[in-house]
Write a structure and sequence with these properties.
- The structure is a single chain.
- The protein has 9 helices and 9 strands.
- It is α+β, with helices and mostly antiparallel strands and about 280 residues long.
- A hairpin with a 2-residue loop joins strand 6 and strand 7.
């Protein structure tokens, strides 16, 4: 076994939920059975219910501290292929301020309280105790990685970890998108459940839409596929309830267009997702 497969269990034993990363330093893609969340997803993903898939193929949601999982045949094979170790900051009750270059590091030194720092290939990770929402691009070359995200393990770092400061929490407060979806003929599915979410929990819909926006926003490749898969997941969970509104659709379209998708591609993805679900 390589050093990665030796270090990862030790980190997990210390309470850090870990997952293998590939040569591109990204989590492994879904296995065929889990493509487009056909499996139902893991907890806290876009669709409810646990996933019984033994492979580490659900990005941050696959991160674990369970030694039985980490040493299973599937994960052992994945560790052999891995080129880096990832971890779920939120699962370890920490937040990573990812500073991509020296300018961002200079900003942090002038703005943020000292804490544990880890040197990266381009800048630094500043790690704080406490969790918050993960958001990329909170300012130029600064990303916040905490819940529903992953970071690359680059060592324990130096310095004493401080409590997550309010200035970081303020950075992740979502500002209204400046992207405005173009006029379209498509609409949300006709109500089939009295306009009430079938899960009877109002926050479930809002959480699902927020997570869908984040999934699109955090995509760095295969944007078309990510947008379609996200639309499909949202419609699968809520399309037949009648609880989706035009405002929800606008939010998803705005997130997709902010990633470079054209209004035409958004409309096509939405239409195709409706067709795939027979709506």
């Amino acid at each position: 076994m390589n050093s990665i497969s030796t270090i990862a269990p030790a980190l997990a034993e210390g309470g850090l939920p870990v997952l293998p990363l590939g040569a591109d330093k990204r989590p492994f893609g879904n296995c065929p059975a889990c493509t487009d969340l056909a499996c139902g997803g893991r907890p806290n993903m876009q669709t409810p219910g646990p996933c019984a898939c033994p492979w580490p193929c659900h990005a941050w949601a696959a991160a674990t501290t369970d030694p039985a999982v980490l040493t299973s045949p599937q994960w052992t094979a994945a560790w052999r292929r891995a080129r880096a170790i990832g971890y779920h900051p939120g699962g370890a009750s920490v937040t990573v301020v990812d500073l991509d270059n020296t300018d961002a590091v200079d900003w942090a030194r002038a703005t943020l309280p000292p804490t544990t720092t880890v040197t990266t290939t381009r800048g630094e990770h500043w790690i704080y105790s406490g969790t918050t929402r993960s958001v990329n691009g909170v300012r130029k070359d600064v990303d916040i990685k905490s819940t529903m995200s992953y970071a690359r393990w680059l060592g324990p770092g130096t310095g004493t970890m401080a409590v997550l400061p309010e200035v970081v929490r303020e950075l992740v407060v979502k500002t209204p998108s400046t992207v405005r979806p173009a006029p379209r003929a498509l609409a949300v599915p006709a109500p089939a459940g009295g306009g009430q979410c079938r899960h009877r929990v109002p926050s479930y819909l809002e959480r699902g839409i927020t997570m869908a926006e984040q999934r699109i926003t955090e995509a760095t490749s295969a944007i078309h596929n990510t947008v379609y898969a996200t639309f499909l997941a949202v419609l699968s969970a809520h399309g037949r309830c009648g609880c989706l509104t035009e405002a929800h659709m606008d939010r998803l379209f705005a997130a997709a267009q902010a990633k470079g998708e054209s209004p035409r591609h958004c409309t096509a993805a939405w239409s195709n997702a409706l067709a795939a679900l027979g709506m």
